[in-house]
């Protein structure tokens, strides 16, 4: 059970991180923005070489746009998936997706593919985040969707994508929080000891 101090602390950190991200993205050169996150760095491409299913997400507003990696991943022979929010209790699964597929609206302004053949199990989960630190603790939106997915799929490689300005000195981690294995920003790939 979280105490109020941790909740307030994470809430404050989320707001600070969102404000910094919004300001940063608003000042980015349009060409730099369009080119960001279009190519996997070689160390990351090598790390996921044996993965079959890679889960991305559709970036909203000023989030780092993970969906831009879909074409390269498909060209590498990977099955690309997107999350589907199932309920307001933090449950989601992952559905196969091709970049030209039509998406259906979901809760919280999310969108997801048609269910098709049903959920797939990702070997790699590329997750959005609000903030991160060098210990690869992830500050999410607060709904626990990715925390639950990480716990349900402990063998999946956990990668966060963020703008570099989202780095924090320290992100509070609860006992149930699983750290990321890597964080990809527009300027570097940060690898942890688990990678």
TrEMBL record:
<feature type="binding site">
    <location>
        <position position="58"/>
    </location>
    <ligand>
        <name>substrate</name>
    </ligand>
</feature>
<dbReference type="GO" id="GO:0009396">
    <property type="term" value="P:folic acid-containing compound biosynthetic process"/>
</dbReference>
<feature type="binding site">
    <location>
        <begin position="138"/>
        <end position="146"/>
    </location>
    <ligand>
        <name>ATP</name>
    </ligand>
</feature>
<keyword id="KW-0067">ATP-binding</keyword>
<dbReference type="GO" id="GO:0005524">
    <property type="term" value="F:ATP binding"/>
</dbReference>
<keyword id="KW-0460">Magnesium</keyword>
<keyword id="KW-0436">Ligase</keyword>
<keyword id="KW-0479">Metal-binding</keyword>
<comment type="similarity">
    <text>Belongs to the 5-formyltetrahydrofolate cyclo-ligase family.</text>
</comment>
<feature type="binding site">
    <location>
        <position position="63"/>
    </location>
    <ligand>
        <name>substrate</name>
    </ligand>
</feature>
<dbReference type="Pfam" id="PF01812">
    <property type="entry name" value="5-FTHF_cyc-lig"/>
</dbReference>
<dbReference type="InterPro" id="IPR024185">
    <property type="entry name" value="FTHF_cligase-like_sf"/>
</dbReference>
<dbReference type="GO" id="GO:0035999">
    <property type="term" value="P:tetrahydrofolate interconversion"/>
</dbReference>
<dbReference type="GO" id="GO:0030272">
    <property type="term" value="F:5-formyltetrahydrofolate cyclo-ligase activity"/>
</dbReference>
<keyword id="KW-0547">Nucleotide-binding</keyword>
<dbReference type="GO" id="GO:0046872">
    <property type="term" value="F:metal ion binding"/>
</dbReference>
<feature type="binding site">
    <location>
        <begin position="10"/>
        <end position="14"/>
    </location>
    <ligand>
        <name>ATP</name>
    </ligand>
</feature>
<dbReference type="InterPro" id="IPR002698">
    <property type="entry name" value="FTHF_cligase"/>
</dbReference>
<protein>
    <recommendedName>
        <fullName>5-formyltetrahydrofolate cyclo-ligase</fullName>
        <ecNumber>6.3.3.2</ecNumber>
    </recommendedName>
</protein>
<dbReference type="InterPro" id="IPR037171">
    <property type="entry name" value="NagB/RpiA_transferase-like"/>
</dbReference>
């Amino acid at each position: 059970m979280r105490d109020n101090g941790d909740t307030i602390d994470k809430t404050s950190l989320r707001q600070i991180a969102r404000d910094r991200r919004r300001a940063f993205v608003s000042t980015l050169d349009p060409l730099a923005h369009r080119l960001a996150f279009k190519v996997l760095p070689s160390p990351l491409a090598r790390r996921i070489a044996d993965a079959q299913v890679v889960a991305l997400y559709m970036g909203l507003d000023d989030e780092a746009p993970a969906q831009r990696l879909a074409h390269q991943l498909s060209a590498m022979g990977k099955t690309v998936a997107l999350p589907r929010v199932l309920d307001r209790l933090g449950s989601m699964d992952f559905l196969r997706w091709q970049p030209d597929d039509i998406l259906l609206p979901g809760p919280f302004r999310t969108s997801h593919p048609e269910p098709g053949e049903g959920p797939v199990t990702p070997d790699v989960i590329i997750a959005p985040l609000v903030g991160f630190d060098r210990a690869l603790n992830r500050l999410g939106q607060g709904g626990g969707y990715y925390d639950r997915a990480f716990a349900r799929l402990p063998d999946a490689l956990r990668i966060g994508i963020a703008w570099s300005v989202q780095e924090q000195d320290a992100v509070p981690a609860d006992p149930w929080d699983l750290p990321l294995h890597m964080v990809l920003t527009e300027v570097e790939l940060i690898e942890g000891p688990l990678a």
